[in-house]
Amino acid sequence: MNYHQHHQQQQQQQQQSSGEGKHDDDAAITEFLASLMEYTPTIPDELVEHYLGKSGFQCPDVRLIRLVAVATQKFVAEVASDALQHCKARQASVVKDKRDKQQKDKRLILTMDDLSKALREYGVNVKHQEYFADSPSTGLDPATREE
Amino acid sequence: MSDGGRERRKFHESSDPQKKPGTDSFARAIVRVGVGQICENEGFQAFQQFALDALSDIAIRYMLDIGKTAVSAANFAGRTEPNAFDIIHGIEHLCSIVGFSGASDVDRCLLSSGTAREILNYVEESKEIPFAYRLPSLPVLKDWRQSPSFLQSREEPPQKHIPSWLPKFPICQTGEEKEPAKAENSLSNLHHGITCNGSGPSTETKEEKNPGINPFLAEPICSGVKEVSPVVPPSKVDAQFANEVVGNHIECEQTSGDKSNEPNLGMKKVLSKQRPAVQFKIKRSRKLLGLAPDSSFRDEGVHERDRSSVYDNGIKNESKSAGKAPKESSMESPKERVLL
Questions:
Q1: B138 in a domain, yes or no?
Q2: What's the DSSP call for residue B4?
Q3: Which of A42, A108, A134 is nearest residue B43 as measured by Cβ atoms?
Q4: Which InterPro entries match (chain A) (predicted)?
């Protein structure tokens, strides 16, 4: 009997705590989403809604759309910052060799090389053709081309 | 000796293969602008076009992937609308490659996951970058007015096979009611070219007057002999006249049968006075339905070519005046087929 009572008490306590937990969860969600609503993401809500609609996501709540927009912006910002690190590292190595070109290479350009290196860490393989040749014999020696 | 594909390159450059046609090109351009702004905020001063395109494409795929994962998580839970937990689940799924704090915890609340905290930190620390342009609502739809159905407008459909709940046929810009069903009939008549019982409008009027005569149920033509209906090509003198003629041929029904007969008579009169010039045009496809170039087409073929050449002028004039591109494309197929 004692054991049963103890078990029932435990169950009641668990139910109460889960009920409270649900309230806590609701409050936590509301807080989390409210803090997002204060921030205006760069990617517009209409655009995010358009692309989420393409994947079957239909939700009238703007806060959820803002959440996706912020997450996408964060991802792009992280990739861009990694690419910037690669770009600066490349320029620093060049500057060491040729200090005359220091002023010319000040401009930070987002190149495919830097982007592909940055995206590789995120599991995205981006390969870009360096050049396109007119014919298979382009760039070969004249002797071999004649053959 | 080839020129190394310079012509092809020029063609490709002029057609601009990077531009993907479709409704998504506008949204993609907006994503490009947004991604460019984000990269600029990070410190970049210039972008390679391919790099910006690639990054914007990846951003689009990121959004699509979050949406897909969130929807599937909601469906697994027996819901149709995703909530915040589903979205965080989707974000975690994408961040699992890089890793986040608390990923190995089994009994973790999604709100307290590393991804949610990282997003909150990003919101608090990063600078707000508003989008550079004002956006219309996406997707950008043209001004589309739904045409009323036959039931709604309390009209009977012209043909029995057309159900009344379908929308009404559009009104032609010349002010006469156009019925594509009959237009299609006339076009198919032109395609065959054999089963026509005369010129376009007269066939429709004849069909109206004599519903029993169905050109499609006419007797099959023997292989050797090919009977061609006497085609009355209009003159090419007046462009406006050609417009009317083309209108008669394209538009299936005149409001009254008399009106349709008059231009035919007029055409015949003009024809008797002037012999229209012959224009030979070589088109890419010469596949005709059951038709073969035959010497018996000599006289009628000339007329047909004239008519088709008139169609060319008529179509061009009409396209210029009305600005209807799909009409031209729809007319070009019979034009191609009529030409031998």
A1: yes
A2: S
A3: A108
A4: TAF10
ipTM: 0.77
pLDDT per residue as tens digits for the range B274-312: 677 777 777 766 555 554 444 444 444 444 444 444 444
Q: Which domain holds residue A35?
A: 24-94+110-128
**In chain A, residues 26-65 whose CB comes closer than 8 Å to chain B:** 28-29, 32-33, 35-36, 38-40, 42-44, 46-52, 54-59, 63-64
In a domain, A105, yes or no: no
A47/B34 Cβ within 8 A: yes
Low-confidence ranges of chain B (pLDDT < 50): 12, 14-15, 177-178, 194-209, 251-267, 270, 291-340
Q: What's the domain count of chain B? A: 1
CB A44 to CB B131 under 8 A? yes
Position B75 in a domain = yes
CA A89 – CA B93 distance, rounded (Å): 31
B90: containing domain: 23-153
Peptide bond into B139 cis (omega under 30): yes
Residue at A53 is within a domain: yes
First to last CA, chain A: 100
Give the A:B interface size as CB pairs under 8 Å. Answer: 186
What total number of domains does chain A contain?
Answer: 1
pTM of the model: 0.52
Phi, psi of B230 (to 5 degrees): -65, 110
**Which residue of chain A is at minimal alpha-carbon distance from B26?**
A47
In a domain, A2, yes or no: no
The CATH number of whichever domain residue B37 belongs to comes to: 1.10.20.10
**Within a 10 A sphere around the Cβ of B265, how many other Cβ atoms?**
10
Of B4, B81, B91, the CB nearest to A58: B81
Nearest CA in chain B to A60: B81
Q: Hey, are the CB atoms on A56 and B66 less than 8 Å from each other?
A: no
- Residue A143: inside a domain: no
pLDDT confidence of A103, banded at 50, 70, 90?
Answer: low
Q: What is the pLDDT of residues A115-137, one digit of tens each?
A: 999 999 888 888 877 777 888 88
Buried b (16+ CB within 10 A) or exposed e, B267-281: beebbeeeebeeeee
Q: Is residue B99 part of a domain?
A: yes
For residue B53, is it within any domain? yes
CA distances from A43 to A52, B46, B116 (A): 13, 20, 19
Chain A neighbors of B82, CB-CB under 8 A: 57, 59, 64
